Every structure is written in C-alpha cells, then in structure tokens.
Amino acid sequence: MSPRQTTPTQDLMRGVWKENPVLIQMLGLCPALAVTNTVMNAIAMSAATTFVLLGSSLLISLLKNHIPKEVRISAYILIIATFVTVVDFSLNALAPLVHKELGAFIALIVCNCMILARQEAFASKQRVGRSLLDAVGTSAGFTIALLMMGISREVLGNGTFLGVNVMGPHFEPWIIMILPPGAYFAIGFILLGVGYWQERKQPPTKRPRDWPHGVRSSTGPADSRRERQVA
Amino acid sequence: MGDLLFIFVSALVINNFTLALFLGLCPFMGVSARVATAVRLGMANIFIMLITALCAWFLNTYILENMPYLRLISFIVIIASLVQITEVTIKKISPKLFRELGIFLPLITTNCAILGLAIFQTNRGYDFAQGMVFALGAGLGVTLALVLMASIRERLQFSSVPSLAKGVGMVMILAGSLSLAFMGFAGLFSA
After folding, report:
1. Is residue B191 domain-resident?
2. How many whole angstroms separate alpha carbon B176 and alpha carbon A190?
C-alpha cells in the first residue's frame, strides 16, 4: 500500500471499529481481559495505553529515518518501554489507588502487541500527522472494546456503573462476571456478537467458506479487502 | 519448605498465569490448535522463564537496587537478548530441538507471561530459591493450560459447531469454562 492511498479520515476511523484492535484484530487481549472488572479500571487502562501509543507513534514516526532496519523492533520496544515507565511512575504519584488496582498490568503495556503492531505497520512508514491520527483512532477502538467489557462486567457482576447502583435493590449480582472466568465469557460473547454482525453484513452468496481457525480465506471479498488495508 | 511448595502450587494452578491472570494469551489463542505444538511451546516457555527468573533475581539483587525506573527497560532488554542467546545456543548444541521449536522461540520475546513473571517476582521480593520455584510453577501452569486447551480444540474439530462459533469467540468461552474449573483450586491452601 503506497502512503497516499488512504485519506486522513480513513486513517483516523479505521482503528475505531472496522479494524478494532481488540475485537477484530485480536491484539492486546491481555489487558482487555485482566483489568476490566470495573468501568473505572477500564477507563484508567485505556488512558494509560492511549498515552503510550500516542507518545511512541509520535517519536517513532519522527525517528523513522534514523532507526536502522535491522534493529527496528528492539528500538521500538525500548521507546515503548520508556513511555510505559513514564506512565507507571506518574500514575503511582498522581493516583496511587488506581495504580494499585491495575498492578503489574501498567508495566505490561510494553507487551501489548497492539502498540508494536501500529508502530511496525504504520508509524514507521508514515508522516507524523498521519501516525498520530492512526494512533488516536486505534486508541479509541481499544477504549471502546475495554468499555464494552468493563460495562458488561461491572453492571452484571456488581449491579453498578462507576460505583452507582443501576440494577435496583432486588438484583442479585452475577459474582462470576467480576472474577477471571467472567472476563473470558464476556469477551467470548462479545466476539460472537461481532462475528454475527460481520456475517450479516456480507451478501449471502459471497460469504467465504468456513476455514479452520488461523487460516485466512484468499477468495472471500471481505477478507482480502481487510488484508489489503492492514498491510 | 512449605513456603516453596505454596509458591509452586499457587503459580501452577491457583493463580495460573493464563487462566487466572490473563498473561500470555496470544500464544494461548494462536498455537493451541494441536497438542504436540502446545507441549513444545510450553517446554520453551518453562526454559525461558527459568532463565529469566535467574537474571531478574541477579539484576534486582546486584544492579537495580537504587534504580527502579530502569527496571522495566532492563527486563525487556534482558529478555530479548536471552531469547536470542538461547536460540543460538540450542541451534549449536541440538539442531533437532531447534527445528522442533521453530518460530515459537523468537516469539517468546513478546510474550507478556515472561515479563509478568519478572515483574511479579520483583514486586513480591522473592529470593533466589523462591524465584526459581515460582518460575517453574508458572511455566508448568502455562504448559498445562496450553495442553488442556489444545486437547479440547482437537476434539472440537470432529464435532459440529455453528459456523458463527468456529472462531476465537468459542475458544474464549472454552477458556472461561477452564478458568471456572481452575477456580476450584482456590480453596487448596485456605486453611
């Protein structure tokens, strides 16, 4: 894909839903599952990840001509790790309670493959403005996915939204939803919903065959279109 | 001794890295389609985890005492170079094992379970023996989860599931059931 093919609006909107990093591309699943037991945690995690993604996209697209191709992945990881350290220590100073809730998962933003994927696929090839737009869109998509998880888990598991009771006094909370299995169930059902939505959108005759998981259809119109945009 | 046993069992089943702490989900989703590959990846994981625990303990004890802000960066660099060194060494010593591990070895660098291990070990202030036992337990736990998942998915290939549920959604719900089962271990050490 040559750099001029997409418009700035496409750069911005692509990550929000059509190529949502968590729900469609399955990147960054660990934080999406681990720290979404309350809406507040989901918001804090999204904010931290947004900062890291914006910062590293900016720096990497500025430095793209100075980073040797052979060591680029290591260089990206080091840049990301620097921003994560900044977030880790700032959050510890500004909001120690939130930092305690999120625990090691702030530090583990380094391993969020969503961030590295955006750097490798986009920021290292594009101009600064475009990279920032892409980072904003991807962060928005990440935030949407985390909020979907956080809201469904907190409302069902605790009967509250941001600590405010929304389900009435006679609601028996589904405790399981705020425990680890609930995270898997929530993301599982959300993914099934997304799959249903994608299937509905395709004209019935042009549906790609059912491939086993991990194998990409080379004939399906939707899949090849998505692959071109990712590349 | 009881302390070490507790750390081991806790990392193995009670706080299983994959099913309770959500670490290392990418390989869990990506390479859990066949049991044979799952076992190999698990072995590679255990190996790297043990070496990482050793290095993290060394760094924490002798070098990074007064520099917590450099911890994350040092860990990431150490893990990346460790994986590289291990790869070269295995290639030299046992080309057969190297071929069997294939692409999984370099991919371990970006596995959050490894970095998570180093961070947990630091936060909990484990000494050398505790760190090694923790790494062994965590590695075996990851392997256990991978093998269980791969076994279920191998059986699943012969059953008819709706086309909608053939993707990752189904795997997630299965993982939820596994996680539910593993919660039963939580009462193991309550007394």
Report:
1. no
2. 13
